[in-house]
Amino acid sequence: MWVGLVLALEVSSLPFLGQAAKRELRLATTTSTENSGLLDVLLPPFEEGYGVKVKVIAVGTGAAIRIAKDGNADIILVHARNLEDEFIAQGYGTKRYQVMHNDFVIVGPAEDVAKIESEKDVLRTLKTIATNKAGFVSRGDNSGTHIKETSLWEISGIKPEESWYLQSGSGMASTLRIANEKRAYTLSDRGTYLYLQKELDLVILCEGDGRLFNSYGVIPVSP
């Protein structure tokens, strides 16, 4: 994870290295990455070692890619492989570096009104939530997490209904807090959930399905 991220940062910052004064490297990434606390650990040694200040722009994957396409980022760290491949194919990125992975989990209130505790099949979990019309909070922001969630609903053959399906239009941390407040279910990356776990009354109810694998890539933006 560290080697891949540093390698991509080095490639992106080559024009800045060796030049006088502090230079800024703009990293467009996801709110889930920022919320996990990972960048607080990884970036300071890089900044100190290379004399490059990294400006973090934390948004959803879709927004991060748009920012880079508009020329407002030097590197992206995102998690939606189809969009990443398209970004490179269109000439916006130079190369994708696989840097890390975690997984998604479905979390919900401890009382688990939909009765899905310890379920391993994410599609059955979503069907159970829909059948019980249990509250579900979606990020609704075209992030990598939102893209994954909508693909799972599509595969399951279910179209969520407004009566029980809420779109927060915000990042992972805010979405988790809204789900917590409403005693609802949501799909989260594991890292952000664990980072916020102590302040939430939500528990992991579905995990371990291979379809919940979550891969992150770093892509330097083409000059």
UniProtKB/TrEMBL annotation:
Pfam families per UniProt: PBP_like_2
Organism: marine sediment metagenome
Database matches in SUPFAM superfamilies: Periplasmic binding protein-like II
Domain PBP: 26-222
Gene3D superfamilies registered for this protein in UniProt: Periplasmic binding protein-like II
Protein name in the entry: PBP domain-containing protein
Lineage: unclassified sequences, metagenomes, ecological metagenomes
